[in-house]
Records
---
Amino acid sequence: MRAYWMNTSDTEARIELREAEVPEPGPTQLLVRVRAAGVNRGEFIIGGLTKAGSAKPLGIEGAGEVVKVGAQVTRFAAGARVMGRWPGSMAEYVLAEQAQTMAVPEGLSWEQAGALPTTYMVAHDMLVLQGGLKPGGWLLVTGVSSGVGVASLQIAKALGAQVIGTSGSRAKLDRLQALGLDVAACTRQADFQPQVMDATGGAGVNLVVNNVGGTVFAECVRCLAFEGRLATVGYVDHTLKAEIDLQALHAKRLVLFGVSQKLTSPAQKAEGTRLFAEQMLPLVASGKLRPLVDRVFPFEQMPAARAHMEANAHLGKIVIAV
């Protein structure tokens, strides 16, 4: 089979297409013929999901057909349409743990299914499991046009919340307003707090999703309401340090948290998958949640897909058709 790998130095992440044997599933695993896989910026940030000086299979999510199952697999059989967060999914075949695999809802295309697991499960973690976002609450998303940003917008609207989003592209914000974005702040600078306070009547937002990084962290804190929460999920600005206003943290009873699967245990990953399937997949099945796919690239054009992502030209998710 063909599979993409990534080799990293201290400053560069290089993509390599390799030939490999089709793997055999272990007792709790499925062998999946991959049909689509999502492209994720975090994989290419050295020091983030990827360690400098390492080589690893590329891909962290996908969708496809079950080919073979391990002896202890009971939930899926050959031919089933499945999706999940699967390491090494940027390949023609991948091994998937049963506990981290979900059935593809009816009506979802391969490309939509391949775009769903990572960004929507991350958004669910931030907004529901850790963020406690309530109907009528306010959410601020920096970099709202990203895959995680769009997923956060869609889940928040499904929950009945109100959303403020920042982006440097007016055209992208205009398109997202059609998806329910309540307030569009067209900026790439840390200057959006006045607009946030104006929209919320001076109260601030209940939850912030920071996709951008350290350059806007302090501004995000300034936007929080009493007992507000701030989720850090990305740092596309490559700024990993920021000042914290301890007085605001203390007086306003703020909560700062991160969202990453890098250090979670298999049991934690399994529980996150179970809760997402239980709480969010009904919304996907009903059509209330639909992944926004920006562009689909053929498998052979993975380097072009990466370039499209790094040019910040996309809105939503970039997907590879395998």
Note: The chain is about 25% helix and 30% strand.
---
Amino acid sequence: MPKKIQEYGKAHLIGVTLPAHGDTYTVISHESVIDMSITALVNAGFTIVKEEYRATADGQIAQGIYKLNFNSDPELSMMFAWTNSYNKQVRFKCGVGAYVNKTGTVMVCGDIGSWSRKHTGTADTETQETIDEQVANAHMYYNQLCADKASMESITMNKRKQAQMLGILFAEYQILTTEQASIIRDQMKRPSHVYSDSNSLWAFYNYVTIALQQSHPKTWMEDQRILHMFISEVNRFAPVSTPVQTLSTQPQDLSTPVPEVDPNQINLLDAIAEAELTDNQVVQEKVEIEPVVHQSEEIIEETVEAEEVPLELDEIVQYTDPAGNTFEAPIVIDDFAEEDNFDLDFTETEEETGDVPDFF
């Protein structure tokens, strides 16, 4: 099976002729990237266990992978990787990830731990700063990947679901060639490594990273990033909490006397806050009172309208109570009573009237 990416030694990459693209192009040499990466890792206290360098045949596009001695998860070692080019086909990229010890593949964070820079202006200076920044936050990126790996181990995927994910990565995200898709299919049938659960999402993830070893160096790191981003979003991996960075403050000089504060002195900020609070209370009270006033006006209007109903006296009704007291009261007849005499016969049935209910 031909490989599109070849492994080379460090000396081979250093010996590649530097490009000459013009005054606006800032050369970021493979040698400088190697030196800056190794120096930053060593200064941070890491030991490089293994170095891997891959490149195109002409060395115009190259990448480096450094397996480090840190591994809180026995299956994952911390990893730092970079990609660089001389032919303008890919920008410089670097990032912290995890090295899968069992398969020799890597994990790259989907949304953090990577950076790219076009070869112009102060790209060489920014490259150094970015490498240092990535290494400084290495533990945060690594811990996130360890947590994601634990989540993937707990998710079961049958062959149908694995095939669906394979189709999405191949047809929609287009990070796989037909050759790589065949490699994943073969891994699904006969895995080249033993997993605690071959039907887990973690096993499928490894099937894909094995195939991505055949990616062109121009797209290798981006393919890795898209894979992890896709898996993370589909399964909604929880982000790992990181300590909040606090700004350092200068120690207080205790020899300098602290001025006493007059308890009767008015603090300007407190006065403004109190004034704003009072204004808010007035506005709130106004909003709450308006509906009550409006309701009262409606009640008064209804009462007035009721008083204006004309009365018509038809006859006087007398009533004598058991004690012999006689009371008189007029019978009020309004327009509604005159029009409708309420002479309704509720004894009629549907059978007698022949009416059919409307809902039939």
Note: Residues 6-235 form one domain.
---
Amino acid sequence: MSSTLPASLERLIDELGRLPGIGPKSAQRIALALVARGPEAARRLAEAVTGAIEGLRRCERCGQLADERLCPICADASRNQHIVLVVEGDRDVWAFERSRGYRGTYHVLGGVISPMDGVGPEELAIASLLARLEHEPIEEVVIATAPTVEGETTATYLTRILAGRVRVSRLATGVPVGGDLEYVDELTLARALEGRHPVSAPQPEP
């Protein structure tokens, strides 16, 4: 960073640049916009950030971010309680909600199985999913992990442990291989959901 910048502005740009998806030029533009908005706007932003970090928790039922014990979706009695869409993270929930094509509930795994990163089934919210099957009238679990190597590995594992407990389906084709669900357009997500298909557990090798 240029030494001609005021030290306080340089610190702000540096902190903004640490956020994912924000490069040096974007950090500079955001910093200048914040300065231009004035102290009151800066205080509101700081309060919003602090409030979110300190106030957010995980929904006791599905595991997504929430302000209360249950997220708005789990607290909505009008949602279809017989189907659960299993996703990797919060952004996937938001993507499906934007599509307006799904009215069931969700279950957030908190990631995918990735041995290279030291993430196994125990690190994901799989035990809580199995517990939900015991206490809720769930008839179908739709596996909506991304079509990546890790996502497919997770889907295969879930299919195996859910076999015989509940009807299991997987998103239909239409979601691009190697892509993240958060970047898929709403129409593609809706069509993939409508065209989901049942899956069966892989047979053990002889």
Note: The CA atoms of residues 96 and 122 lie 26 Å apart.
